Amino acid sequence: MSTNAQKRGFGATIWDYLTTVDHKKIAHLYLIAGGLFFLIGGLEALFIRIQLLKPNNDFVSAGLFNELLTMHGTTMIFLAAMPLVFAFMNAVMPLQIGARDVAFPFLNSLGFWLFLFGGLFLNLSWFLDAAPNAGWTSYASLSIAQTGHGIDFYALGLQIAGLGTLIGGINFLVTIINMRAPGMTYMRMPMFTWTTFVVSALILFAFPPLTVGLFLMTFDRMFGANFFDAAMGGNTIIWEHFFWIFGHPEVYILILPAFGIFSEIFAIFSRKRLFGYSSMVFATVLIGFLGFMVWAHHMFTTGLGPIANSIFAVATMAIAVPTGIKIFNWLFTMWGGSIRFTTPMLWAVAFIPSFLMGGVTGVMLGSAAQDYQYHDTYFVVAHFHYVIVGGVVFALFAGAHLYWPKMFGTMLNEVLGKITFVLFFVGFHMTFFIQHFLGLWGMPRRVFTYLPGQGFETSNVVSSIGAFLMAAGVIVLLINVVITSVKNEKVGNDPWGDGRTLEWALSSPPPYYNFKQLPLVRGLDAYWIEKMEGKKGMTPAEPLGDIHMPNNSFIPFLISLGLFIAAFGAMYHGDEGNTWGIPVLIFGLLFTLGSMFVRSIKDDHGYHIPKEELIDDNDKGVKA
Amino acid sequence: MKRLAKWRLVSLFAILTLVLSACSGQPYLSTLQPAGEVAKKQYDLMVFSTIMMIAVMAVVAVIFIIVLVKFRRKDDKIPNQVEGNHAMEIIWTVIPILLVLVLAVPTVSAVFNFADVDAMEKKNEDGTSDALVVNVRANLYWWEFEYPNEKIVTGQELIVPTDEKVYFNLIASDVKHSFWIPAAGGKMDNNTENVNKFWLEFDSKKADPDKLFQGRCAELCGPSHALMDFKVKALPRAEFDQWVTNMQNIKEPQDATTDLAQQGQEIFNKSCIGCHAVTPSNGTPADARMAPNLTNFGDRNIIAGYLEHNEENLKNWLSDPETYKPGNKMTGTYGELTPEQLDALTAYLMGLKVQGE
Amino acid sequence: MHVEEKMTVETWPAAPEKQTLEAKNKFLGFWLFLGGETVLFASLFATYLALKDSVPRSDMPLAKDLFEIPLVFAMTMILLTSSLTSVYAMYHMKNFNFKKMQVWLGITVVLGLAFLGLEIYEFNHYVHEFGHTFTSSAFGSAFYTLVGFHGAHVAFGLLWITTLIIRNSKRGLNLYNAPKYYVASLYWHFIDVVWVFIFTVVYLMGMVG
Fold it and tell me: Where do the Cytochrome oxidase subunit II transmembrane region profile domain residues begin and end (chain B) (predicted)?
């Protein structure tokens, strides 16, 4: 029963990952899959920048360009940023609250496989038909008008992946509410756990509108419904609303965990507790709440009328207040501290000016009357890359360096890490700063080319060079990962030396049951408190006893596979002369339902690690 | 010494002006060179908010630099674990709230100002209004401009009077588009299911007969979204009225004047007139207008929305529209044209003028 | 306390659905899931309200032409009653009366089937009498999507409860399956609440035009 066996063959390892319900292994899966999609999305970005290198360029055709820009956005948001954020949430959050696993290990695995199959389905569009080409926003009139199956891949792929995310959100919420270690009150939770908590709530309420929107689009495109067909009484603005009721919280779903990671980093490498912890918590909750009140600022030019535009403008600008609170709290966490410039800290320090830049342009965009000029120009492109790259991607890089030892037991090379940082940081600002001006000078976004003589040439060259610098930075990171993995030098519990939260009290990587005995938490920065009192580790809150563990399961994979199959049926059934579509759709759905049925009727009580085995572990040292 | 200082100051301003003008884009296209009331108000708001934001960034920058310089790790001492500071936290909560409020007031007032279209709603007994109204119908990669009060239709080139408010009704006939003339003001979407209304104004001092304002589509609408441009010609009221009268005077298709053009007209009447009208009346219902109205094609400054207006470009466009505007609706609606036919059509189309030389 | 332990009336706890950590997690997780479902249905309601009576031709049926209160009222009463019978079932679960719980759940399933049958008849009626179909207008799409999503939820709930009844028929109640029963009944109540809103927003408000 035990998954504790060491030195297994390659096949056994693969099978282990296919069936694992361990949050730490699922974190690996999210990291690898999200990383791959990040590279694909990055490649698409490079093609975009090559095309825009000079006016009237013909590197790619107009149609292919639209596919690239759509897939770049969709991949980066749904298949790269979200899963990478989920990777760190899975890897770290249960450790931070002193839990043995997440609340629903089975669902955790299901969430991952749904995401992966959804992502695969979406990306298969490149090979099977044409990729979606209506932008990541896929506005209804355009997406309904598209022939071919590109948009179908989008609608069905995101539906499957989105389901996985929703499941993940519920899982994290329950984990945080029910499974905190003794003494871990809400106001002692590390900032990253807090942001995970708020983000999970956002996911719970933001994804259903997307689900509905995607269903309506699927029904319109594949089953003859008329939600978005104006001639049949439909209304495309419904899609815009649903998309942004989801889409705006989605932005916070990405950025709040980034805030969480940076909050950890500032505290660790300044050797100081987070300044204004309670106001940080308050600001996080407030940002999450306001995130639902501002979606229509993406639709200022849609024609909702001056009253709606004014309300949403003011609400949007109000978000600057809690965000400002955070910026100042970070600065004053460092103030009076003892700052060590490790790679994660470099990313965190660079994040402040970069994100601030995106924040202030956000306020300008929120001011509706100005937005009429900025809307759908390169100014917007610059703005959201400043927040998403300067915020989220910086955090992902920082988190990767910070948590690499906790996830894999080895440290990424610091020198290569700093090279990655410099290349990416310089490239990032080169690429996107100038784009503010391109927008102001009259260059709309999502254009496959521009004409000579409008003054766009030099700036676009600068922007494209920057993109290649970013790519170079990512390549150095990949080299770093390979070198580190080959060397495989194991590190101890607290490799950075200044860890403050519970995860640093465990070995790197932690044993599969996490805590042998649940720790007693005596305050914020629980591990730091013990360290300052000269203790080596946490005080246990319970006597050593048997540990109840969940069984591995292949069913999550099968449930997801069923939906993957069904999606093909749904997509192709409307083709002329197609006879297999409906049977495949029904087969896939039955396959999923059948897998769920098996899961339901087969009792699964998990297993227990006997006390004796845990005592043995003490002698041998903790193993992976 | 004093003169030197003055000279320095002057050269500093000269450089600054140079940098600023390099940074403000093309006068016919840039939002930073406003050429009308709406754009001007938006530009002022931009400048105002930018200054405010730079002030905020300066405060952050100062603290940021002090922190990074002063608090590097020098020894192994554990710093004081500060929990927070209520006074400071209140300061950086209240000041941003005030800043937001200061920005909110002009924002809201401008939003309502830009949405004020009462003048176009005031209808006379015959259903017309005193204000100048243009119905903008956006189509896959071309624009139609209908003047409902004047009862004329044109396409691709918007002609408006300067120094007065021009009101727009915006709608799309296929997919969503967005109507944007950066130099004149912000954009508004052409939706498929409802009419959006707003106004713009064009400044006579900024209107340049050689460099017409550039308009564009700002909402992704398909492969040729990037090429869905149009031109805006802003004329003094008298010239505008003259143009309207000239247009209105054309009741029947103009007859070609040369032999070559006559051949062209025959081809046109056989292959093109099904979609392209050459009279400006708006008798055909909007849905049935499949392609740009060509009544004043010879007067225009662009071909296919973005190509320079010359015979060569016209021939290229007619012989292979797909290359010039991928995904357009004209490709494949007529057979291949011989060089002779192209010459004839070109001669005919270039002769379609209402303004005279 | 082991989850599969044979229980008696004496050892059966007052809140059998929340005895283990797994059960507590399931209980909370399901409530959260219902929160998400609420947003899902809210979105569908919004779509319906936006597209209500939105038809391409004036001769097509509108809400006020279609709906007949007696039938829908009967459906409402059936579903409300089924909610009540599932409450009885949960009452008997708390009292460790397995047989009665199974019987009441059985009645719930029968009522649910009756509801579904009537709904199918209703849809059929609209399609054949009025030509009001999923593809005939935006109104049709929105109506069938909203009510159909609810119907699909009913069907799924029926499958779920039936599976529970059959799966556990031989082994009786324990702390492993008690939370499963409890959560299924929660789901059933949720479906009922959604229907109350459909009855009000779609049918009653549809009648008044």
Answer: 23-118
* Residue owning tokens 């050459």: B278
Residue C153: pLDDT over 50:
yes
Note whether A356 contacts B57, CB cutoff 8 Å.
yes
Options 3.40.50.720, 3.40.50.1820, 2.60.40.1730, 1.20.120.80; CATH for C70-207 is 1.20.120.80
The whole-number pLDDT of residue A3 equals: 45
Phi, psi at residue A84, to the nearest 5°? -70, -40
| Tens digits of residue pLDDT in C74-111 | 999 999 999 999 999 999 999 999 999 999 999 999 99
Query: Would you call B21 an interface residue with chain A, using a CB distance cutoff of 8 Å?
Result: no
Handedness of CA C90, C91, C94, C100 (dihedral sign): negative
Subunits next to C (3 or more Cβ pairs <8 Å) are A
In angstroms, the separation between the Cα of residue C142 and the nearest Cα of chain A is: 7
Query: Residue B3 has what pLDDT?
Result: 61
Chain A residues touching residue C139 (CB < 8 angstroms) = 233
**DSSP assignment of B147-174:** ETTTTEEEESEEEEESSSEEEEEEEESS
As for how many domains chain B has, the answer is 2
Residues of chain B contacting residue A270, judged by C-beta atoms under 8 Å apart: 71, 79
Q: And the tokens for A573?
A: 């059934």
List B185's β-bridge partners, or say none: B181
The shortest CB-CB distance from C135 to any of A177, A226, A605 is to: A226
3-state SS, residue C16: helix
Q: Which of B66, B80, B193 sits opposite A235 (nearest CB)?
A: B193
Query: What confidence score (pLDDT) does residue A614 get?
Result: 85
Average pLDDT, chain C: 93
State the nearest Cα–Cα gap between A13 and chain C, in angstroms. Answer: 28
> Does residue B240 share a domain with residue B162?
yes
Instruction: Tell whether pTM > 0.90.
Output: yes
Identify the structural domains of chain A with CATH numbers, from first to last.
20-542 (1.20.210.10), 555-624 (no CATH)
Q: Which helix (H) or strand (E) holds A352?
A: helix A343-366
How many helices (H) and strands (E) in chain C? 7, 0
Chain C, 64 to 83: residues with Cβ < 8 Å from chain A are none
Residues of C in contact with A236 (CB under 8 A): none
B325 lies in some domain:
yes
Give the pLDDT of residue A288.
Answer: 95
Residue A534: burial class (beta carbons within 10 Å; 0-12, 13-18, 19+): exposed
Using the Cβ of B87 and the Cβ atoms of chain A, whether some distance falls under 8 Å is answered with no
CATH code of B175's domain: 2.60.40.420
Tell which of B48, B88, B108 to mutate to test the A interface (max A CBs under 10 Å): B108
Q: What is the pLDDT of residues B155-208, one digit of tens each?
A: 999 999 999 999 999 999 999 999 999 999 999 999 999 999 999 999 999 988
Residue B235: give the domain boundaries.
132-350
Whether residue C70 is preceded by a cis peptide bond, meaning omega within 30 degrees of 0, is: no
Tokens standing for A65? 């360009």
- Domain co-membership, B229 together with B258: yes
Q: Which residue has the higher pLDDT, B152 or B124?
A: B152
B175, B239: one domain: yes
C17 has a pLDDT exceeding 70: yes
Residues B147 and B66 in one domain: no
User: pLDDT below 50 — which residues of chain A?
Assistant: 1-5, 619-624
Residue B313 belongs to some domain of the structure: yes
Cβ contacts below 8 Å, chain A against chain C, sum to 116
**A441: which chain B residues are within 8 Å (Cβ-Cβ)?**
24-26, 29-32
The verdict on residue B310 lying in a domain is yes
Domain assignment present for residue B29? The answer is: no
pLDDT score at B20: 62
Judged by CB atoms closer than 8 Å, whether chains meet at C51 and A238 is answered as: yes
| pLDDT beyond 60 at B2 | no
> Looking at CA atoms only, how far is residue B319 from chain A in angstroms?
19
Pair (B283, B146) in one structural domain: yes
Joined tokens for residue A558: 């099968």
Q: Is B291 in the same domain as B150?
A: yes
Q: What is the dihedral of CA B235, B236, B241, B242, to 10 degrees?
A: -80
Asked if the ipTM is above 0.90, the reply is yes
Q: Which of residues 1-40 of C touch A (CB under 8 A)?
A: 3-4, 21, 24-25, 28-29, 32-33, 35-37, 39-40
In this structure, the answer to whether residues B201 and B310 fall within a common structural domain is yes
Residues B154 and B283 in one domain: yes
3-state secondary structure at position B169: strand
Which of B86, B175, B178 to substitute to test the interface with A, most A CBs within 10 Å?
B175
